[in-house]
Design a protein that fits this description.
The chain has 385 residues and is mainly alpha-helical. The protein has 13 helices and 6 strands. Helices cover 46% and strands 11% of the residues. It comes from Leyella stercorea.
Length: 385
Amino acid sequence: MKITIRTRALKTGSRSIYLDFYEKGERWSEYLNLFLVPDDTPDAKRLNDASMAKANEIKSKRLLGIDEDETETGGSEPNQLPKRIFADWLNDYIEGIRRSPSYSQSTYHNYRSTVNIIKAYLQYRRRPRYLMSKIDKKFIAGLLDFMQNTYRNTKSPDNPKEMSQCTLHLHQAILVRMLNAAVNEGIMNSNPFYALDKHERIAKQQAERDYLTKDELLALAEAPTTNETTRRAFLFCCFTGLRYSDVCTLAWRDIKQVDSGLVVSIRAMRKTGKQVTIPLNQSALKWLPDRNGCKPGQRVFDMTSLSACDRCLKKSAVAAGIEKNVSYHTSRHTFATLSLAAGGDLYTVGKLLGHTNILSTQVYADVVMETKIEAVNRISEYFSI
């Protein structure tokens, strides 16, 4: 990396001193709050020599990757932030996530991936010991730009790829949570992410929610399959809205008889922890396997891995002539969309799905509305009046 001391003329006649960074085609600046005064100013030479000496000192630190003197301690001012190196704080924070029983293993892995990306950015900018008190809007904007345009996923070293929009948005969300935690700890005064304009943030990608129609469900039920249990469990979920994580642990004791008939009663859904009770209609009961004397604690479906289920379903979908991208989660979208299309209200369908926010259910209502609009338009085209 090349660092050059440059100056910029000001209207006052003085010149502002800044560092010009250049590496691998990228250029950025850092203004030092140091100035060169005009020659006619008293003691101009002494003042300018002191400013340039300080600028050269800072330049040397930047070349070594040092943001501040590591031996410096916080001052005595009551409002002064503690000097915490960002990378060190991240290490402590992620260790807390790992040890906390409140976070799942997958959540920890997501946080750790975000931390690795931030560290990669600090290395990219040659600022591995950057202080948290220095994190501002410009730093966050640079980090988000690095994530989108420079960083490559290292899971496949032979074929590094840029991250998807969904993954980028996930890392941005985790970054915001971590900075909020730093503010709560008193390490930062405020979260600079909120100073970004909307266009500077990573937008959330609208997820595609493919669902199966009645005819597609019938076609899939009759198509050849490489695993009958997978197909039965998938179709069962199309009429109950259960996730893969819930159906693969579903036991016979979870299917109970109540006054209105059989229901699936799950004490706590794997993802949300919410309790749900789902009535079983004739379509759902059709795909339940025979119990054959199974004990209450035995599993209803002997499931393979999620990836194996998805491969099986994609093959069946092709055989059935379905062009949609079918995965196991398509069953949940199918249940939600068909339930609303059949006249179910948002609140009830949301309860059956175990949603914690009505906005999650609203997405499916929007899909149903698009279908209704298409139907109305087809009527208009038919009569041509």
